[in-house]
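REQUEST ID: PR-0412
SUBMITTED BY: lab tech R.K.
PRIORITY: routine
TASK: structure prediction, single protein chain
INPUT:
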Amino acid sequence: MDKQLLQTAYSPEDFRQNGHQLIDLLAEHLDKSLNKSSSKVLNWENPSEEYKFWNNFLFNGKPSDLNNEIIKRSIHLHHPHYMGHQISPVAPITGLTSLLNAILNNGMGIYEMGMAPTAMERVVVEQLCKEIGYGKKSDGFLTSGGTLANLTALLSARKNRTGNDVWENGTSNKLAIMVSEEAHYCIDRAARIMGLGEKGIIKIAVDEGFALKTELLEQSYKKTIHEGYEVIAIVGSAPSTATGIYDDLETIGDFAFEKGIWFHIDAAHGGGAIFSSKYKSLLKGMKKADSIVIDGHKMMMMPSITTALLFKKGRDSHNTFRQKADYLLQDSKEEDWYNLAKRTFECTKYMMSLHWYTLLKIYGKSIFDEFVTTLYDLGQEFGELLENDPLFEIAVKPMSNIICFRLINKDKDLLSLNKINSTVRQKLLEEGEFYIVQTKIKDIVYLRVTIMNPFTTEEHFKKLLDNIKRKAFPLLNL
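STATUS: complete
OUTPUT:
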């Protein structure tokens, strides 16, 4: 068989040429975005039209135009007007570690398929555990995102805290977890995947500041036990995704210890604050947790998708998926940390440790302090601007880089204001100069900003608010 196409596809020289062109193109894109010579964050198109374009391009477009079109039709996270979802504008060097990963493509399920990244992962985990304040018996691993990490942590809780070996024998017992009503939806999803059902998810109300109401824990726990459920875990948010508010982790940790239940912290967004000298106190009580999730792709400048799942007792990271795969994994007298498929949901995972290790090696942990502290400071700054503007109302004083706010008018009822805020957000999206999102809290629609770019400034905030006002004035009859 003629292998001409394969020879072309694997040509080192073609790779070198195409690689140089792509790096130049991306460098130009970064320059335009970071320096805001590009006026738009995104070029909005509705789904059906976008599909038509790409369907046509597959058969009629020039291959040389492919990368340009992808960049043009993607959202530009490095633009200081990007204030949308919790996805980091990556440190450019991690684009290179992504390239390294893609070409080497070590699977990392077993040690011999990923010697370097496996050892690097252990070093990274040790550094993270040290920053948390865990002892020498702590451990953990990197996995594919906060959703999977939170599910894995709750599976660990079930394995550790139930009287029955669910992994081996299954269970018909009524199990439950306790969690804030403002917790990320992936906690609810994980509990349902585990078979807990709606009644096994005990949602605790939040206070006026949207933090879990710790004074309700005792009565909720007793009620759940009285109804015949076994409470295996309680989850603290650091912070909640919708509002950016940190729960009182210390009080929750004390409660969990008293009841003998697993304490898990979903710090997917805000766990990076362990490196911030100014904001680390928001995580007070974190070392009481049995497990903690921290996303690298949110507040630690890394590409999607990479998450650290850390355990106070390292053996818990080995027990969750304990099973035998004779052709891959050999029994050993001591825990073989280097065979990661024993501990992760994935049997194959990409070399995500390259991002963490490279950032630590090249810039040191101070880079995370600068990043998190800058963004959280900007959150305070934007909150103050909103509080001083009578046309806006904030849901809660910000604790992080997430701020929920809305347009208000005393002559408009709730439904009208909800519609006005949603309409303004849609207009912003279609215009493309700024990117923000919206959320609904207790039936109220809020505009929601997550400041992810450390080069966003007060001037950008003022320009955003002026833009919102221009769009809102006709709707508010001002």
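NOTES: Confidence is low (pLDDT under 50) at residues 324-333.
REVIEWED BY: pending
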